[in-house]
Amino acid sequence: MEYIDAAKGTEFPLYPRELSWLAFNGRVLQEAADERNPPIERLRFLGIYSNNMDEFFRVRVADVKRRILLKKYQSSEQEDAEALLQEIQQQVLQLGARFNAIYLDIQLELRKHNIELIDHFKLTELQSGWVRSYFRNEVIKHISPMILSGDEVSLPKALDDNTTYLMVEMTGAGKPEYAIVQVPTNELSRFIELPLHLNTRKKNGHYRRQILLLDDVIVHCIADLFSGFFEFDAIQAYSLKLTRDAEYNISDTLDQSLMDKMSKGIRQRLKSEPVRLVYDAAMPEQMLKVLSKQLGTSSVDSLIPGSRYRNFKDFIGFPNIGHQSLEFPTLPPLQSPEFEQYATSFDAIRAGDIMLHYPYHNFGYFTEWVRQASFDPKVSHIKMTMYRVAKHSRVIHSLLDAVRNGKKVTVVVELKARFDEENNINWARKMTEAGIQVVFGLTTLKIHSKLCLISRLEKGKLVQYGHIGTGNFNEKTARIYTDMSLFTCHQEITAEIGQVFEFIEYSYRPYQFKHLIVSPTWSRPRLIQLIQREIDFAISGRKAEIFLKINNLVDQQIVELLYRASQAGVKIRIIVRGMCSLMPGISGKSQNIKIISVLDRFLEHARVYVFHNGGETDVYLSSADWMTRNIDQRVEVGVPIYDVRIKQQVLDTLDIQWRDNVKARIIDAKQSNAYVKRGNKRSIRSQQQIYDYFARQQQQNSDSGL
């Protein structure tokens, strides 16, 4: 039976965030199952699902386990957490079974297109010889087995997080010997295409393209790896993967730099508590017992049987070795007419606010703006926040160029950006060495805002140009995440952006924000005020509406206020990507609330808040989800859209998404993920429709000569 948190102490029900997160990943699995998607893309969705599930266990399940362990003296709360963990485990197993069925279905579909994923059991004699040669020449140099006999190896400390391993058993006259072999995917491709002339020939005379996983190469040659060192009559190997708690504790000693602390924190994460062991379901029971004993798994550890392959997240990058129709058609990034008609980015922004919608628009307009600033003699100072950036970031290279050109550059680096800490530490060191002023902000708050502020001397006066966005300054994710970026030289807004940078460095000073919605101190009261204003309109009999596009909606106070807004008669529409604690459509509580979720080829990432405001519609874009951490525990920034044309553009895109009847799911009180029914209406696939919307604008401006 599904576990539902009744939200003790409140009259409103809250759907558990962990189960809501699983419902979101269920929508990812729906995309993998959707035969309207090309087969290679379906396979990649399985990779996304797997990657998401890894993070789920590292963060959400780890948190539930901590609640069980820390609340052992509060029996009722411990029982709630244990019931939740039990429900999580049950749903994960159900999703896993669905995953395996979808994978088999995709394999059959790929065979129709002359592509075959084979395992080592299906190798011909000629192919087997080639694989053994490949193993000797390319693979074996990257492998150093861990032998489990004796007390020399502590397996819980030795295994890295989310890495694919093979558990090896060698049997003969004596007692069995066990070993662990890491699959070296950091050094070699996971997907190995067999030479075409060795492959199976189809009836029409063409050869079938065949791919063997690196795991199977090692299993096929496993005897070669251990021969000469061990005597055995039989040898077998099965895959496994350990997932650890992503949280970590860092001491607050004053004699360590923050970067040193964070480096230690990352190392600690690699050796932190395991929360999940996934293993090949075909692994013999005795081998599993040995593995469990070596790891010291407890009663609350998640032991999850699965298919023969671990770390399916690598399938996100599965190569298309067939026809281009096997993956999504390319949508070339569109031009921005506002930027294109001016000689410099600064001229364009000075002429009026500009909004870019990624990945529909080209992220290159942002990188070009920073590049121009790096050598523009009028630019004196560049300030930027950095949460997640690409490993080969053009943005940071432009900042390094700016320092060489004598500009003052300040970069706020968030070292605690989960799973990007190491990349950010490396960039922070490189920027510091180059002369950039690197600021690590507040140790108790993550800096999640997406800000850039460029100061320029124009006609003897300092003019500031600002950027506020919903997404990171990351060239890679800008091609697959839907985000919005506002470029402005509105002097009151840019002045407040400057105040945010000051707050990060000098949080003890008093600040006031008239335009921006800034977390942590100023966000909650402002959001409450905006929602309450709609409630007051509804109570007075006037039209009252709220329209939200958000990634996660789980802050209890805000959710309860939305319930109260619904009770007052406020019409509320929400497009949510991930977790949602609010349960819509409940009579007397949330009957005025409708929620959908859109999941398609791009990851929905933008956050937009719309309030009817008595007909004077307010539109904000923000970096913040409506989660307690974003409202109270991070530095986040939301910005109002004042330009009438841009405001209408944002509302148009939201309307297109709300009318999606191809990739939209209804979020109901049970989060069952039913698709929005199309009926007799024309097909609306919102991401494609939004691309077409901006393509038409580009064409219209081209036709008009702009």
TrEMBL record:
Residues 16-117 form the Polyphosphate kinase N-terminal domain. Its EC number is 2.7.4.1. The active site is at 448 (phosphohistidine intermediate). An intermediate of this reaction is the autophosphorylated ppk in which a phosphate is covalently linked to a histidine residue through a N-P bond. Its cofactor is Mg(2+). It catalyses: [phosphate](n) + ATP = [phosphate](n+1) + ADP. Pfam families: PP_kinase, PP_kinase_C, PP_kinase_C_1, PP_kinase_N. The keyword S-adenosyl-L-methionine does not apply. ATP binds at residues 52, 481, 577, 605. Mg(2+) binds at residues 388, 418. One of its GO terms (molecular function) is polyphosphate kinase activity. Residues 345-508, 516-687 form the Polyphosphate kinase C-terminal domain. Residues 127-318 form the Polyphosphate kinase middle domain. It is an enzyme of class 2 (transferase). NCBIfam families: poly_P_kin, PRK05443.1-1. This is Polyphosphate kinase.
